[in-house]
Amino acid sequence: MNRLEQVRWNHQHGYNCAQAVACAYYELLGIEESILYRLAEGFGKGHAVRGTCGALSGAIFVLSALNSDGQVGKANTKLSTYDLVEHYIHDFSLQHESYVCKELLAIRAKKESELRTCTDVCAAAAELLEKYIKQVNS
User: Fold this and answer.
1) Which residues fall within 8 angstroms of residue 1, CB to CB, at 6 or more apart?
2) What percent of the chain has pLDDT over 70?
3) Phi-psi sector, 72: left (phi>0), alpha (psi -120 to 50), beta
4) Which of 1, 50, 63, 98, CA to CA, is 20 to 30 A from 56?
């Protein structure tokens, strides 16, 4: 199963949107899936209040982990991570007209989106994430 399929499987089997995306990348990140699952739990349902999309939050977890040098107390990679995340959010918003959970749900309810379920949004977030991972790794 590739990571995009894993994201779909995760969401269809009880993971929230943030967990579905972040946990599909545990091997790439070298972080135990159970740790990612625990850390991402509160970011589902748009941070529990239909705010920032959980799938977007899961992708930000992955981008941060991949781009950060992990040097505690130093800001070596902070600005480049912020830049990467800013561009990801911009591209996500262009694709989906928003990055806010309740707005994404409203767009779907009006049938103005080809993404019919949160599982579809998670998969689309991961598809965009794959492009960014190639950028980070190059």
Assistant:
1) 9
2) 98
3) beta
4) 1
Compute the distance between CA of residue 92 and CA of residue 32 in angstroms, rounded to an integer.
27
Distance CA(87)–CA(13), nearest Å, equals 30
Cβ burial of 47 (10 Å; 0-12, 13-18, 19+) is: middle
Q: How many CA atoms lie within 13 A of 77 on its CB side?
A: 14
Neighbouring residues of 61: CB distance < 8 A, sequence distance ≥ 6: 18, 21, 22, 36, 39, 40, 43
Q: Hey, what are 1's tokens?
A: 């199963």
Q: What SS3 string covers the chain? A: CCHHHHHHHHHHCCCCHHHHHHHCCHHHHCCCHHHHHHHHHHHHHHHHHHCECHHHHHHHHHHHHHHCCCCCCCCCCHHHHHHHHHHHHHHHHHHHCCCEHHHHHHHHHCCCCCCCCHHHHHHHHHHHHHHHHHHHHC
Quick one: tokens of 130? Answer: 């794959």
Q: Is 17 exposed, middle or buried (0-12, 13-18, 19+ CB in 10 A)?
A: buried
pTM over 0.85: yes
